[in-house]
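Intended use. Records like the one below are meant for learning the mapping from a protein sequence to its folded structure. Do not use them to infer anything beyond what is encoded.
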Amino acid sequence: MDLSPLHIRVLGTLMEKARTTPEVYPLSLNSLVNACNQKTSRDPITDYDEDEVLGALDELREEALVMRVDMAGSRVAKFRENLSNKWELSQEEYALLTVLFLRGPQTPGQLRQRTDRLYPFANLEKTVDALHGMENRDEEPFCLVQTLDRLPGTKEIRFAHTLLPLDEPVSPQMETEPFHTPPESSSKSENSSAGLVARIDELEKRLNELEKLINELIS
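Structure written out for the chain above:
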């Protein structure tokens, strides 16, 4: 199927909440809408309504990428993702694809920081190895990520998922380029950037916990 940004947001949100808030998963329509539009861990920030999200769920269910769950004792239908089963995703692929779905193109360092609650990569090299593995899979879809050209004035490569068309050029020469440790001269700056990302992610975790409590009260 041709996936839209809304389809991607719904899938990424369901995949995220399955791992980060399993106690309230599967999600009701109301909880899913709130999670799709939350102000943290999302890029871009959206304002989808229930009709839009329900329409996307119906289309995703037709492709068996989402399943409806009618739970005993609950008057509200709930939904869970089935993409990970249909595409036979590994834990590493699941984590990386979830964050790419929710935040768009990112550097390996950003992805390692932001996938920590989904799958803890041992180091940056492991993250890059997993990303390159997703460019040439044995199962369908055979290519889940692509390498992008570096942004002007930056040294780090970026990765994007392949489920939506991009408005920026892909860098074919980077597809097989090995990961290299950055020069020591830039390590202080990169360590500072990594620390800032870690602090931002910690704040986002706290906000997510508050949103989870709110969702539990209204769902």
